[in-house]
Amino acid sequence: MQSILIVEDDLRLANLLRSGIEEAGYSTLLAFDGEMALRLIQNGNVDLVVSDIILPGISGLELCKKIRGVQPEVAILMLTALGTTDDKLEGFDAGADDYMTKPFDFRELLARIGVLLKRRGTNVQSTNEAVNILQYGDLKLNLDKQECFRGENLIKLTPREFSLLRFLMENAERVVSRSEIQQKVWNIDFDTGTNFIDVYINYLRRKIDHDFNTKLIHTKPGFGFFLSHEQ
């Protein structure tokens, strides 16, 4: 049975989440602050974390970063009242796989949990089969070390930037739409009403292209984005 850690300091909401998630067939653990959550994570046997952002002690964002340091394969869904585009970007930058705002539809929460756990299972099964290096021209991603190089230059990327660039490289010279990126990189299959994909494309352009003569990340207006040597 897959195990879900619920990190929520509101006891009433924590118990509601536990009851609904267990009814869907999952086992659950409860933590009421970040430190307690970390102890449970370090003990292992957690497949997914559902965490609030505003927590006693360390915040949900700091917790997310710490989880990525000790158990990078664990899926993380942020569940919070903070719902602006900047809040969501901050959550993704901290390493979250998905982000839902309160109030939420429990059916949608369970659907997203199912998607994240399915993706996690696929990733765990295929780890030994994965290609360790992706390269396009002088751009290189080391998938084991989560490192990016342009030529000899090490480029620091956030987890979400790394995932987006990986997707572009895996589809080099093919135009990928915003909706495709949303589904394949963020695992979101509905309109979020925000331009966060364009924001992340701009982040990548500043890091990958700004200091180099050959620009690799291009836009095809009305269609999407693609990686190409062509200027």
Task: Please give a handful of descriptors for the protein shown.
20% strand
What is the chains' assembly state?
Answer: single chain
Shape: elongated
How large, in whole angstroms, is the Cα Rg? 18 Å
Helical segment count: 8
Query: Low-confidence runs (pLDDT<50, min 5 residues)?
Result: 124-131
The portion of residues assigned to helices is: 40-55%
| Helix and strand element order | EHEHEHEHEHEEEEHHHEE
SSE class = alpha/beta
Mean pLDDT: 85
> What strand line-up does the widest sheet have?
2-1-3-4-5
Query: Terminal Cα separation, in Å?
Result: 51 Å
Strand percent estimate:
15-25%
Q: The biggest beta sheet, please?
A: 5 strands, parallel
Number of strands: 11
Nutshell version of this structure?
This protein has helices spanning 11-23, 34-42, 60-70, 85-93, 106-126, 159-170, 178-184, 196-208, and strands spanning 3-7, 27-31, 48-51, 75-80, 98-101, 133-136, 139-142, 147-150, 153-155, 217-220, 224-227. It is of the alpha/beta class.
Structure description:
The N and C termini lie far apart (51 Å). Helix 2 packs parallel to helix 3 and helix 6 packs across helix 8. This protein is of the alpha/beta class. It is elongated and about 55 Å long. Strands 2-1-3-4-5 form a 5-stranded parallel beta sheet, sandwiched between helices. Residues 124-131 have low confidence and may be disordered. The protein has helices at residues 11-23, 34-42, 60-70, 85-93, 106-126, 159-170, 178-184, 196-208, and strands at 3-7, 27-31, 48-51, 75-80, 98-101, 133-136, 139-142, 147-150, 153-155, 217-220, 224-227.
